[in-house]
Amino acid sequence: MRALLLAVGLAVSGCAIQPPQPWERGNLARSDMQFDSDRLDTKTQQHIYTSKEAATGGYGVGGGGCGCN
Fold this sequence. Notes:
This protein is mainly alpha-helical and about 70 residues long. Helix content is about 45%, strand content about 0%. The N and C termini lie far apart (about 50 Å).
């Protein structure tokens, strides 16, 4: 029971984090802080994924490899 209360307490305390302040957002907008900092590499990876899956779109667009989109 104590472990459950501890887990719930930790989960709830994680929700209390404040969003970044306006003066802190500049640090988050830097290119090295992005998940896909190299746009050319991201575009190439999406193209390869689309080609291997034989589907249109690749990310977030419906369609299968059967050509019946």
